[in-house]
Design a protein that fits this description.
421 residues; six-stranded mixed beta sheet; TIGR02710 family CRISPR-associated protein; Rossmann fold; 55% helix; CRISPR-assoc_prot_Cas02710
Length: 421
């Protein structure tokens, strides 16, 4: 493998000579200063360094930088490193910041943090005094920047939670752990924190994809170290075991979609929630499966009230959609929440009952790409649907869920990791 050595050069040349002898690079880049007035630079020292290392024929370049301007040094070096990476994409790239001014060393280290796949070292040696290292005793000492970078990247991964992007956090944490797998200097506390962060993100990602059992199991493994996750672990179990609790959870899922500006997805979930409430009521209270209608369970008067004459006459095996599902549920329970919602005036819409307003929302939903249309829905569409859902949830969903022992307003999934993570 080709080795590229980037070394900052200052007044003392012995550490650079030792670095060259130790690494035997194929190409070298020396970061040097030019002479400025009576102030000497380090560029003229390079030929002597190469000769002393026995590498006079080594391919090398000089990057001339100001002595005490870390920002300018960083910008120049970063661009040069990018060029070297393009020229040698598979090479081993080693940055040695032993020599040079403090500004040069600072810029070198900043570039190492900003350049993926870089090794960082300095030449450590025996000190007989506080002034200098004894020449000839220098040895390359690796700086473990992988876990330093991991901690910085970890902060970015945690920020994904604000937008409920749990999958991105989980994937990023997994990648960091793989990078640290063979880094013996990475603290175990960092590894454990990343493992737990990845696991928690996986759990909430599974939850977001309606895999409540998986979420509950993963969260259970985290409780000994992160007891504040218990409320979510218990809620995931309730969602797994209770259809009414899953209905409540679906609304939180719709809210997450809207918060991420995925309005077609949010409205699709709200539509499904309305339909699901009707199906749940027919199944749990009346033993009617809308996917396989048993017409013997529906009286003639209920058929009339629900407007199902054509379906009944043909002995259709299913209902044709959401409205028929709700109207049948209303016909089976004329004083129930669904029936009252459909026939009563809709708040703020003079002359329009709940069924009429429901049909308005279905027209809106049908324009969605995820339904029957070709145009993406936007925030204004979601705001209209949200206003409708606030009434439907208050008048229908909440009382029905409460009567079934479910929590109608469960907490939203977290937008930041637990404080202990």
């Amino acid at each position: 493998m080709t080795t590229l050595l980037v070394a900052s050069v200052g007044g003392s040349t012995d550490p650079i000579v030792s670095a060259l002898v130790a690494s035997r690079p194929d190409v070298a880049l020396f970061v040097v200063t030019a002479q400025k007035g009576t102030q000497p630079g380090s560029a003229e020292k390079v030929p002597g360094i190469l000769e002393k290392a026995g590498l006079s024929a080594l391919r090398h370049e000089l990057l001339v930088v100001p002595a005490d301007d870390p920002e300018s040094i960083f910008l120049a070096l970063r661009e040069t490193l990018r060029d070297l990476r393009r020229q040698h994409p598979k090479a081993r790239l080693v940055l040695d910041y032993t020599g040079g001014t403090k500004s040069m060393s600072t810029a070198m280290f900043q570039c190492a943090l900003a350049t993926p796949g870089v090794e960082v070292q300095f030449m450590a040696g025996q000190r007989d005094t506080l002034d200098k290292v004894t020449p000839g005793t220098e040895r390359p000492t690796q700086i473990p920047i992988d876990w330093l970078l991991a901690e910085r990247t970890e902060a970015q991964l945690r920020a994904y939670w604000r937008g409920f992007a749990y999958a991105a956090c989980a994937a990023g944490a997994k990648g960091l752990l793989e990078n640290l797998e063979h880094n013996e200097k990475a603290p175990e506390a960092v590894r454990q924190r990343l493992r737990d962060l990845a696991a928690a993100a996986r759990a909430f990602d599974a939850w977001d994809r309606f895999r409540h059992d998986e979420a509950a199991k993963v969260l259970a493994t985290l409780l000994p170290r992160h007891p504040e996750l218990e409320q979510f672990q218990k809620l995931a179990e309730r969602c797994r075991d209770s259809e009414p609790q899953r209905i409540a959870d679906l609304w939180r899922n719709a809210e997450r979609c809207a918060a991420s500006e995925r309005y077609d997805d949010a409205i699709a979930r709200a539509y499904r929630l309305i339909e699901w409430v009707g199906q749940w009521q027919l199944t749990s209270r009346h033993g009617i499966d809308v996917g396989r209608i048993d017409w013997s369970r529906i009286t003639e008067s209920e058929v009339q009230r629900a407007g199902l004459q054509d379906r009944h006459a043909s002995r259709a095996k299913t209902l044709s959609g959401l409205v028929q599902t709700l109207k049948l549920a209303a016909a089976k329970d004329e004083e129930g929440e669904i029936a009252r919602f459909l026939r009563d005036d809709f708040p703020g819409k003079k002359g329009k009952d709940g069924e009429g307003r429901l049909r308005d929302m279905l027209d809106l939903r049908n324009r969605s790409i995820l339904a029957h249309g070709q145009m993406p829905l936007g925030k204004a569409d979601w705001d209209r649907f949200l206003a409708f859902m606030e009434v439907f949830r208050r008048q229908v969903v909440t009382p029905l869920l409460r009567s079934a022992g479910a929590e109608p307003d469960p907490p939203q999934l977290p937008q930041r990791p637990p404080d202990t993570l």
